[in-house]
Amino acid sequence: MKKTLLITGGIGYIGSHGVVAFETAWYETVIVDNLCNSSIQTLYGMEAILGYRPKFYEGDIRNTELLTQIFESHTFDGVIHFAGLKAVGESCEQPLLYHDNNVKGSLELFKCMQRYQVKKIVFSSSATVYHPGNLIPFTEESRVGGTTNPYGTTKLILEQMLEDLALHAGFQVMNLRYFNPVGAHESGKIWENPQGIPNNLLPYILKVWGGELPQVSVFGDDYDTIDGTGVRDYIDVVDLIAGHVRAYERMDDSRWKFTSYNLGVGRGISVLEMISLVEKVVGKKIPYIITERRRGDIGEVYCSPEKARGELGWKSETSIETSLKNSWNYYVANS
Ligand code: NAD
Ligand code: UFG
Question: How far is ligand 2, taken at its centre, from the CA of residue 131, in Å?
C-alpha cells in the first residue's frame, strides 16, 4: 500500500517539485499551503505533469483547527515540511513575522504530529544556520549560530526543536540544509511563482531578461571573493528533491533519529558569473548595476556535500547550464 505524506508548502517552488517526485516514487501526497508566496497555477502545473491533481488544502499551518481536520482525514506516514517564509532581507525588516510564521507555524505542526503519532519528518533547513565565521566549504560539523538575519535564526530554532523531539519524543528527523536551489522541472510547468518583485537572484535576472524589471542590482562588489560579488552554491531543485526522497526512505530504519545533511553542489558561483551564464543561455545581454551590500548577506558560501554522498548515496547531477535553461523555459512559457 502507498504511504501517505503531508507536504506543507507544497504549492511553493521546492515543495511542488517535492510533490511531483514523491508521487512519482509511489507515495500519496496531501498538500497544505496558504498561498502566501505561491500561486494556485502551480497546482495545475503539477496536475499536468502527473495526470491527476494532488490533494490540496488551502490554509495556514498556524491554524490548529485546519491541521486537526487534515490529520483526522488522513493517516500519515510522515511529513515533508517546506512551509515557511524565506526572504533574508524581509526577515530583517519584519523579524516577528518570521518568528510567528516559521517558528509558531512549525510548533503547531509538530504538536499535531505528536498528537497523531506521526513522527517522521524531513525539514527544509538552510545554509544560513552556519556561523559566518566558518571556513568554507561548510560541512555538517561546521559551527552553527551567529545567524546574520532573523530568517536564519528561525531555521536554527527549529533545528534545535526537532533535535529535542528526536532525543526525547521519538521523532525521526532528516534535517536538510539547502544551499541555493535553482532550475525547474524539465516540463516547464512548475517553477518559482513569487508574488511581486523576487528576492532571489535567478528569478530577478529572468525578469530583467523579460523586460519586467529594468536591470539587476548586484548587491555589493567589495566582498573578498573572486570578483567581489557574492558567491553561492547553486543546486538544481530536481536534484535537491531527489535527496529528500533518499532521506525519507532512510527513515524506514528506526535507528535514524536526527541527522543533518548539506544539499549543495560543493562549488561557488559569483553574482557576475551567474549573470554571464544566464546571458549565454538566453543569448542576450543582461543589464546590471552595482549597488550597496544587502543587509544580512555574507560574501561566500558553499558546502561540502560529501556526507549526503556517503550516507544517502546522493549527489547533484544537473549542470548549472541545464538548470538555467529549464528555468528560462518555464519563464518563457509562463510570461
Ligand atoms: P516558497 O515560498 O516558494 O514556498 C514556500 C511555500 O510555503 C509557499 O507556497 C507558501 O505559500 C507556503 N507557506 C508559507 N508560510 C505558510 C504557512 N504559515 N502556512 C501554510 N503555507 C505557508 O519557498 P521555497 O523556495 O519553495 O522554500 C521552501 C522551504 O525551503 C522554505 O522553508 C525555505 O525556507 C527553505 N529554503 C529555501 C531556500 C531557497 O533558496 N529557495 C534555501 C534554503 C531553504
Ligand atoms: N543578489 C544580488 N541581487 C539580487 C538578488 C541577489 O546581487 O537582486 C545576490 C545576493 O547578494 C547573494 C546572491 O545574489 O550574493 C544570492 O542571493 P539570493 O537572494 O538568491 O540567495 P541567498 O543566498 O541570499 O539566500 C538563499 C535563500 C535563503 C536560503 C539561502 C541558503 O533565499 O532562503 O539561500 O544559502 F537560506
Answer: 16
Residue 78 in contact with ligand 2 by CB distance below 6 A: no
Ligand 2 contact via 200 beta carbon (within 6 Å):
yes
pLDDT digits 0-9 by tens, 9-38: 999 999 999 999 999 999 999 999 999 999
| pLDDT tens, residue by residue, 33-68 | 999 999 999 999 999 999 999 999 999 999 999 999
Give the start-to-end residue ranges of the domains of the chain: 3-182+235-264
Tell whether the model's pLDDT for residue 184 goes beyond 70: yes
Reported confidence tier of residue 195, pLDDT bands at 50, 70, 90: low
- The arrangement of secondary structure in 3-182+235-264, i.e. its CATH architecture, is 3-Layer(aba) Sandwich (3.40)
Q: How far is the CA of 28 from the centre of ligand 1 (A)?
A: 21
In SS3 terms, the chain reads as CCEEEEEECCCCHHHHHHHHHHHHCCEEEEEEECCCCCCCHHHHHHHHHHCCCCEEEECCCCCHHHHHHHHHHCCCCEEEECCCCCCHHHHHHCHHHHHHHHHHHHHHHHHHHHHCCCCEEEEEEEHHHECCCCCCCECCCCCECCCCCHHHHHHHHHHHHHHHHHHHCCCEEEEEEECEEECCCCCCCCCCCCCCCCCCHHHHHHHHHCCCCCCEEEECCCCCCCCCCCEECEEEHHHHHHHHHHHHHHCCCCCCCEEEEEECCCCCEEHHHHHHHHHHHHCCCCCEEEECCCCCCCCECCECCHHHHHHHCCCCCCCHHHHHHHHHHHHHHHC
Instruction: Point out the residues that are catalytic.
Output: 151
pTM: 0.97
| Atom number in ligand 2 closest to CA 230 | 15
